Amino acid sequence: MTRTKKTPAELPEVSVSDDGDVRHLHLGTPWVQGSMRIAEPFEIELEYVQRMMAWLLFVAPESVARRNAMQLGLGAGAITKFCHKKLRMRTTAIELNPQVVAVCRAWFKLPPEGPRLSVVLADAGAEIRRPELAGTVDALAVDLYDHEAASPVLDSADFYADCRALLTEDGCLTVNLFGRASSYERSLSCLADAFGEQALWAFKPTREGNTVVLAQRTPTRPKRAELQARAEAVQARWDLPAVRWLRVFKPVAA
C-alpha cells in the first residue's frame, strides 16, 4: 500500500508504503528514507538509526532528560520521537520539506509541538548558524541525504564546524555516512578538520552500508569497563542494543 503527498516542484514527492508491520517513508524514489514499526511508533526500527543514539555511551543516564537534542533532516522522525517520548529530552527537528513534516504527523505519529518539542521548517545549514543556538545542543543527529539517498547534502568542514559550535562542552554529533562509498574518507576528513581526529568514533558499516560516525565536542577516551557499564545501562533503560554496539564501535584514531 502506497500513499503519496505532492510537494513544491523543486522538492521531491513524499510517499509512504507499508511492508507488513513496517511503514516506510520515500522521497520521490523507492529508496527508504525512514521506517517505523506500526505497532511501536516510538521505538527505533532501523539499525543505523539506533546507532545514531551512541552518544548515550558518553553521558550519565540520569542526566539525559535534562539535555537538549536536535535532528537535522526529519525523515520519518524516529530520532525526534525517541528523544522526545522515550528519553524525555527537549527536542528540535529542522526540516526543509514541509510535506515531510505533514506526512510525519499524518502517518508516523509525530507528536504535536509543545514546550519540549519544536519542528522548524528551514534550511538546516543556515538555521544552525543562528548565534543564539551556539553551545545549546547536547545530542546533534545529522541525516541529510538527497532524494536518491546518494550522498549527504551538507558534508563540508565548514558545515561540521557549524555543528561543533552548536554543541555543549560534553555534547556529541552523530552523522549517517555511507561507509562503503568513495565519499566516506572525504567526509571523515571534513569531520576531522572540524572536530580533530581524536574526537571521532565510528561504527563498522551496517549490512546496508550505513556508517554512523560520532564526534565529541570535547574528546574523551573512556575505559572499556566504563563503556561496558554505560552500554548495559542504556540497554536496560531504553532497550537499545548498546552492548552489541561495543563490538563494532571504535575510535577513529589509534
From TrEMBL:
Stored InterPro entries: SAM-dependent_MTases_sf
Entry protein name: Spermidine synthase
Domain of life (superkingdom): Bacteria
PANTHER family cross-referenced by the UniProt entry: THERMOSPERMINE SYNTHASE ACAULIS5 (PTHR43317)
UniProt keyword annotation of Ribosomal protein present: no
Keyword tRNA processing part of the UniProt annotation: no
Any one of the GO BP annotations: polyamine biosynthetic process
Organism: Melaminivora suipulveris
Record keywords: Polyamine biosynthesis
